[in-house]
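Hi R.,

Here's the chain you asked about this morning:
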Amino acid sequence: MRKEDSMSAAGSPLPPATASAPQPLTASVGADCADVAIVILNWNGAKFLRQFLPGVLEHADGARVIVADNASTDDSVELLARDFSTVELLLLDRNLGFCEGYNQALAQVDSDYYVLLNSDVQVTLGWLRPLRDLLARQPRIAAVQPKILSQADPAFFEYAGAGGGYLDRLAYPFCRGRLFDTLEKDLGQYNDARPVAWATGACLLVRATAWRELQGLEPAFFAHMEEIDFCWRLWNAGQEVWYYGGSTVLHVGGGTLHKSNPRKTYLNFRNGLALLYKNAAPGELRSALLQRLLLDGVAGLKFLAAGQFRDFMAVLRAHFSFYSKLGYWRQQRQAARPRLRVQERPGVYPGSIVWAYFAKGKKKFAELGL
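And the predicted structure, written out as C-alpha cells:
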C-alpha cells in the first residue's frame, strides 16, 4: 500500500483502504438524504429518462431529484411534465455543454450536497446514503463516486469510472478495472474505500461548499475530462476525492457521444493537454508536457495508419485549439492554488500508462503495482 492511500494530504489518518467490502455507512448520520440534490443534466435524453428516472426516484432516499434540461429538441420536457411531475425541472436557454450546463444549473440549487448523475445511469437500492454519509463523517472528503458497472453486462466494470479514477505522471487517465479498452470482471476486488485521483462525472457526489469554492467545472472544457480537472483542483486545494465500493450504479456509457466519435477524440486530446498544463506542479510541467506532445503525435499517426482519418484530424485540431487558447490556459494556471507534485497526490501512477499497457503488456490494474 502506498503511503498516500493511508494518509490524507495533510498527514491525518484516513480509514484503511482494503480489498474487503467496506462497512455500511448508514447509522446515526441523519434519517434520510434530504440534504442531497440529485441533478441530471439532460440533452435529448428522453429515452434514458423514460428508462432510468423511475429508478432514481424510487431509490432517492429523500433527496431532491432535479432535471436540468440543456435546451433539448426531443420530447424530454414534455415527458417530464406529463410523467414525472415530482421531478424539479430547470430549463437552460441553450445547449451549454456538460460543464457550463452544470455550473448554471447548480447555481440555482440550494443543498448541502450535489449528485451529478448522467441520464444513462441505472441506480440501485441503497446507492446514495453510503456516499452521503462518507462525506458527512469525513469533512476533508469533498467528492466521492460509487462503483461503476456496465449496464449492458453488470458482471464487468464500465469504461467511465469503473473502480475509481487514476492518472499517470503525464495526466493520462485510467481506472481500477479499466486500462484503455480492457475492462475487468467485477470479482469484488474493488469493494473497498480509498482516495483516488479523480471520481467520475457519471455519478459524482460533491460537497456544495467545495463546488462553490472552486467555481464548479472548467467551462472551456465543454465536456469530457472536466471531472478530472475538478478533482485535481480539489486535491490542490487540500481536499480529498474518494471511491466507495460499497455503493454500485450501472452506466450505459456513450449515451450522448460514443467514445469512438471524432468529436470525443478532439475533446479528450484538447482537454487532456489543458488538464496537464493547468494543474501540474511547476517543476514537473515542462518534461511532462513534452512527453505528452510526443505520445499524442504517436496516437495521431496510429489513427492515420488504421485509416481513421477523422480521428487523426481530431488530434490535430485538438492541438491547434490548445495552442490558440494558450493565453487563457496560462491565466487559469496562474490563478490556481499551489500545485501538488506527483508523489503528493493519491491515485497517480509514477510511470507512463501508455508504455505499461502497449509496450509491457500490462492489461490489468493489479499488474501496475499500485
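The chain has a mean pLDDT of 91.

Let me know if you need anything else.
M.
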